[in-house]
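Lab notebook, bench 4. The sequencing result for the construct came back, and we need a structural model before the next group meeting so we can plan mutations. Quick request posted to the team channel:

Model the 3D structure of this chain.
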Amino acid sequence: MMKFSQIFTFQNVATLSQKLSWSHFRELLPIEDTLQIEFYAQMSSLDKWSVRTLRNRIDSMLYERTALSKKPDELISYEIEKLKEGVVSANMILKDPYILDFLELNDRYLEKDLEDAILRDMESFILELGNGFSFVARQKRVQIGNDDFYIDLLFYNRKLKRLIGEVTKKHTLFC
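Done. Here's the predicted structure in token form:
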């Protein structure tokens, strides 16, 4: 209870307790970094995570894999404040790296093998991408000038209001 009172202010608890249960708070208390706690609490609240989902996100090191965690503490605090207002940035959603163990690929695989595995396990893949993603197209042709390019897999993120496409194994395209 002492740690709980040190981490959460009365105003913060009053707001979060409307959407999170005591079990959510118990999952957050072992985390040492207060910015991580705030991130998980706000994401749980915003996306209505169950306790099991919160536990899975903590175990999969979601915070460490978001672009946000690689920023200075001041920017992280700013982004979390914006999250409280319901504003979600790309830093909060995009991960690096993604954990794609469920695709059961060997250490060496062709890009087509990855694409086929993703399509076979589309639901798990979209859940790994994060909330707000939807599948749009496969091998989407894009013409730039007189050149044709093909986006292997094209997704749309409703929160970011942007198209996101997988062009090669190493490049992600944002539109």
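The mean pLDDT is 81.
Will bring this to the meeting.
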